[in-house]
Write a structure and sequence with these properties.
302 residues, alpha+beta, Alpha-Beta Plaits, Aminopeptidase, 2 domains, seven-stranded mixed sheet, three-stranded antiparallel sheet, 10 strands
Length: 302
């Protein structure tokens, strides 16, 4: 479904932009990534407990034997091809199968088929929930207060300036809230590899003192962008990141934004649609796109 989109074709391409790279050596960048995208024993334990607590909730508990049987069979048989999103499980909602191949090309292929990655008890899994939050960039909404805050200069917004920092912060936020399916250290590095290839992108929202106040990251497949995760230290920062992303995708003629299961995006015009409606939209959204590094346009942030 990705047609001619492959990471090897675009790894050296970069988008036009106005922000210069910070003078950081490759060795320093590698060191910082290793520091950010790792996991302490305490964090691993907390993530494991969040997944387990979610699995033991009453509704999930009913389907737990079937889920475990499914996971064991998937692991023992091995997946020769990507699972069909249309056949994802009802409990837990959207579990489609394991993700044994986490190479950039394989992950892009999965996202182009309506699947996305989550980590269940540390295991990479592919999901396709039966409802999805999606919107066309031209159909989005801009709440007045949010647009005013973006224009006020209260926050500084950038794109792809600190992908590793955003992934780490978003993962830490998910784990601290005891939410399930946060990426493991290996998972965070999967997204980092896609970022290096020019297909995973971040939006950074910094406060006046330069601290990372919020942001988001996700995967671009042609003219479709899938928001993987977002976070904010206050009630506005994560929405400001989404608004900045929307404005750029609209300017770049993207055709579809997929918010996965993030119902908080509703205030920006996202609507919950059945899985079949979401999957039907994907083929027409895979053309075009903007591979390479993304840089913010100041005229879209005022």
């Amino acid at each position: 479904m990705l047609q001619e989109i492959r990471t090897r074709n675009f790894v050296t391409l970069f988008s036009d932009g106005v922000e210069a790279d910070a003078p950081v050596s490759q060795a320093e960048r590698k060191r910082r990534r290793a520091e950010l995208l790792r996991e302490s024993a305490a964090r691993t334990f907390t993530r494991f407990c969040a997944d387990l607590n979610h699995a033991l909730r009453p509704r999930a508990l009913v389907g737990l034997p079937g889920t475990l049987d499914f996971m064991v069979r998937e692991k023992s048989i091995g997946a020769a091809r990507l699972p069909d999103a249309r056949h994802s499980r009802q409990v837990p909602d959207g579990l489609a199968g394991l993700a044994p191949d986490l190479s950039p090309d394989a992950v892009l292929d999965a996202y182009s088929r309506g699947l996305f990655l989550r980590w269940m008890l540390g295991q990479a899994t592919l999901w396709a929930p039966h409802t999805r939050m999606i919107v066309e960039p031209n159909a989005t909404q801009e709440p007045g207060e949010l647009a005013a805050r973006l224009a006020s200069g209260e926050y500084h917004v950038s794109l792809d300036r600190d992908f590793d920092g955003v992934v780490n912060a978003a993962t830490s936020d998910t784990i601290s809230q005891r939410m399930p399916y946060a990426p493991s250290a290996r998972g965070m590095n999967v997204f980092a590899a896609l970022h290096d290839a020019g297909f995973a992108h971040s939006v950074e929202v910094r406060s006046a003192d330069g601290a990372l106040a919020g942001g988001l990251y996700g995967i671009a497949c042609g003219g479709m962008f899938v928001i993987q995760s977002r976070f904010g230290v206050d009630e506005f920062a994560s929405d400001i990141a989404a608004l900045a992303l929307i404005r750029h995708l609209k300017a770049w003629d993207f055709k579809l934004i997929d918010g996965c299961a993030d119902k908080g995006l509703e205030r920006l015009g996202f609507a919950e649609v059945p899985q079949r409606a979401q999957l039907a939209r994907i083929p027409g959204a895979l053309s075009g796109g903007r591979p390479g590094r993304w840089l913010a346009s100041p005229n879209l942030l005022g």
